Amino acid sequence: MVNSKRPISIAVVSDAVYPFHRGGKETRYHELLTRLHSVADFTVYTMHWWPEQERTRRTEGVEYRAICPLFPLYRHGRRSMLEAIAFSLACLRLIGRRFDVVETDHIPHLHLFTLRLVTKLRRRPLVVTWHEVWGREYWINYLGRVAGVVAWWVERRAMGLPDEILAVSAGTADRLRSFLGDSVPVRIIQNAIDLDLIASVAPAVPDEAGELLFVGRLLEHKGVHLLIDSLAKLQSGRPLRLIVVGTGPERANLEQHALKAGVGALIRFRSDVSDAKDVYALMKAAEVFVCPSVREGFGIALLEALACGTAVVTTSHPDNYGRVLATRSDRGYLAEPTVDAITTAIQQALKDRSRPRKAPEGWLREFDWSVVSEEYLEALRAVTSRAGPRGPIEADAT
C-alpha cells in the first residue's frame, strides 16, 4: 500500500563529513541536514571518521553510518586512488539499505558508478550535487597526460549517470550543460551562508587578527603561494600580517615558501579555528580577505567575507566562480592569478579601506541557508515524485 504522507527517506553519500573534515561540501551537507532533519529522514553513509567503535552515530538529529574504514583522502598531495576505490566498493552496501532517493556529491567520481548500479537495482533515483567541473586540461595538469586522460574519461562518463544534477553555481551548471545538453536535468541549488549568525559575531581583537586573511583548504590550486609572494612585495610600507586558516597537503610546502620569501614571521598558519563564529570574527577584523584560487566551484568563504563587510580580492580566472560573487559587490576586487596583479589589487583594497563598512548588501539574502535548504528539499521531493509512487520501505538487510 502506498504511503505518500510519510517523510521522504534520503540516503546521503559522502566520503568526508563535518566536523571531521572541513570543506565546502562538508559544510553544505552539515547546514542542510541539520536544518531539514525534522521534515525528512536523512541517513549519511560515509567512512568511519569518529573515534568510537560503533559504526552508527547520531548527531544533531542526523544518523551517520560508516560503510568502510577511514582511508586518507590525500596521498603525496593528490587525491588518493586507494580511498576512491575503497569507498566506491563500499557503496555496494546500500543495496540492503532503505531509501527513497540517493543524494551524493560528485567527488571522488568512481562511487557514482557504484551508486548508479545500486539505484537501478533498487529502482530509486540518483541525485548528484556537482561543485565543479575539472575538465580534461585540468586533469592532465593534475595527474599527468596518461592518468589525466583516464581521469577525465571517468569524470565525463560520471556526468551522465545521475537522474538529476544539483549544481552549486550557475557557472558549474553551464559547464555541465555544455557536455550533457539536455540528456541529464541540471538544477542550480547554490551554496549559502548563515547571515543571522554572521551578524551576531563581533570582530576579533587586533592581536589575534591579521590585516590579510585566507580561509580554505591548503591545496595547490588555491594559490596561497601567490598570496605569500604578494605579502613579501607589500612590505615596503607598514608591515602587514597574514592569517592562513585551514588544513591540507600543501601546508608544509607553504610554510617553507614563506620562510624563503622572508615573511615567515608575518604569517600565522592556523588549523585550530573550528567554530564558524571564530572564522567570522577573523573576517570582520581583517582589512582584506584574499582568495587567490584559480578554481572555485562557488566560493563560500569569499561570500562569508563579503557578508562580514570585508573587502575581497580574488582572481579573474575563468574556472574561479567566486569571481562572479566578487563582481556583485562594491567591496570585490578581481586580479589575474599572478603575484603582481594580486599585489596591486590588495593595495587598491587597502587604499579604499577608509570607506565605512556597510550592512550586508541586499543581494546576499538569496544565499541564506533558510532559503537554499527549502530549495534543496523541494528538488529531492520532485525527483522522487517523478520516479513513481513511494510504497513501504523495505527493512535494512542484516
Could you please describe the fold and organization of this structure?
With 398 residues, this protein is an alpha/beta fold. It folds into 2 domains: 204 residues, Glycogen Phosphorylase B (Rossmann fold), CATH 3.40.50; 160 residues, Glycogen Phosphorylase B (Rossmann fold, 3-Layer(aba) Sandwich). Strands 3-4-2-1-7-8-9-10 form an 8-stranded mixed beta sheet, with helices on both faces. The protein has a 6-stranded parallel beta sheet with strand order 13-12-11-14-15-16, with helices on both faces. Helix 1 packs across helix 14 and helix 8 crosses helix 13.
Please name the defining characteristics of this protein:
single chain, 398 residues, alpha/beta, Rossmann fold, 2 domains, 8-stranded mixed beta sheet, 17% strand
Task: Give the CATH superfamily of the largest domain.
Answer: Glycogen Phosphorylase B
SS-derived structural category: alpha/beta
Helical proportion, percent range: 25-40%
Determine the strand fraction and express it as a percent band: 15-25%
CATH architecture of the largest domain: 3-Layer(aba) Sandwich
Low-confidence stretches: none
